């Protein structure tokens, strides 16, 4: 004949659900006058946790009405949270190191100065490339240089945490079965049963702490990865020299093109200056007032600053 259901069983369930699942088994046991082990047994058999989830109101997706989750939040101006390779990122002068920022701010609109600076940089790069090529040619022809290292990363396994959970479930099941056997007999637990029950409680409490710590540590950081395979790509001195030669040819071509631009600029500048002198001379002829250079005794056609304005 089946035993009559204990009224404390339903009372304990009601107390725990009313607390929102915040009361520990020991606290529920004190309110119902039973042992904490019995409360844990009832909690597992009657599925209190599932009942607690069912009585919670259903939440809609997204932010709930009246929430202030985003108050005072948002990424600051100039953040790079969404940057991937950075090819299309907006860069401000304030983002650069002081020395690079000072260099850029020193650039003026003087075309001749800017072209001269660019020519100097290209020539410096050309000399640097030549030096690297000479070092490779003078070095060991059989040497190998590391060009690239490729690592294949895989997520770290959670096998240890999984094993701890399985062990915790096994101990919990063994403890619940032992409590059930003691309850069915209707007699006080023997010394052997009580010692075994105490040992299981200690093991369960220890495993619960370990599992909680492991889950908290895992949730508090990004997914950990480990290197599964590593590939190292190496190049011979000849391969490296060929790449440097290709870049040297590009740099040399840019220098030649820039020299042509400088020559064109100088010719255009001379043409404009000649036109200005012709204009100044025509202006002086028209007014009949010539500006004589006291040092050469010739007509000064390079400056018309003291001549009157012909415009009405």
Question: Number of helical runs?
Answer: 9
| Annotation, overall tally of beta strands | 2
**Amount of helix:** 55-70%
Ends apart, CA distance between termini? 127 Å
Largest sheet: 2 strands, antiparallel
Following the backbone from N to C, one meets helices and strands in this order, namely: HHHHHHEHHEH
Tell me the β content: 5-15%
User: What spatial order of strands do you see in the largest sheet?
Assistant: 1-2
Q: How large is the radius of gyration?
A: 43 Å
Question: What's the overall average pLDDT, rounded?
Answer: 80
Low-confidence stretches: 305-312
SS-based structural class? mainly alpha
List keywords for this structure.
mainly alpha; single chain; two-stranded antiparallel sheet; 312 residues
Structure description:
The protein has a two-stranded antiparallel ribbon. It has helices at residues 7-18, 25-32, 36-45, 48-55, 98-105, 111-138, 159-185, 191-219, 237-287; strands at 145-155, 225-235. Among the domains are: 1-51; 111-138 and 241-306, no CATH class. Helix 7 packs antiparallel against helix 8 (191-219). It has nine helices and two strands. The protein has 312 residues and is mostly helical. Residues 305-312 have low confidence and may be disordered.
């Amino acid at each position: 004949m089946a035993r009559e259901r204990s009224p404390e069983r339903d009372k304990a369930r009601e107390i725990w659900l009313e607390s929102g699942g915040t009361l520990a088994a020991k606290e529920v046991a004190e309110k119902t006058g039973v042992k904490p082990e019995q409360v844990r047994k009832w909690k597992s058999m009657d599925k209190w946790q599932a009942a607690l989830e069912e009585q919670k109101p259903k939440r809609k997706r997204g932010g709930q009405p009246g929430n202030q989750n985003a108050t005072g939040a948002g990424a600051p101006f100039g953040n790079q949270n969404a940057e991937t390779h950075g090819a299309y990122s907006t860069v401000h002068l304030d983002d650069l190191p002081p020395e690079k920022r000072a260099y850029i701010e020193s650039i003026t609109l003087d075309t001749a100065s800017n072209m001269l600076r660019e020519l100097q940089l290209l020539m410096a790069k050309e000399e640097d490339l030549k030096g690297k090529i000479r070092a490779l040619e003078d070095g060991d022809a059989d040497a190998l240089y590391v060009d690239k290292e490729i690592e294949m990363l895989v997520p770290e396994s959670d096998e240890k945490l999984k094993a701890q959970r399985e062990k915790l479930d096994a101990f919990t099941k063994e403890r619940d079965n032992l409590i059930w056997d003691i309850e069915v007999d209707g007699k006080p637990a023997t010394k052997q049963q009580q010692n075994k029950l105490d040992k299981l409680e200690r093991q369960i409490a220890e495993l619960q702490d370990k599992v909680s710590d492991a889950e908290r540590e895992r949730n508090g950081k990004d997914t950990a990865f480990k290197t599964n395979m590593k590939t190292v790509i190496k190049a011979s001195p000849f391969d490296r020299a060929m790449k440097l030669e290709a870049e040297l040819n590009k740099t040399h071509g840019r220098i030649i093109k820039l020299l042509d631009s400088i020559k064109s600029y100088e010719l255009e500048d001379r043409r404009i200056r000649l036109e200005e002198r012709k204009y100044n001379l025509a202006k002086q002829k028209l007014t009949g007032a010539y500006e004589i250079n006291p040092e050469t005794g010739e007509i000064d056609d390079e400056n018309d600053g003291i001549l009157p304005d012909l415009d009405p």
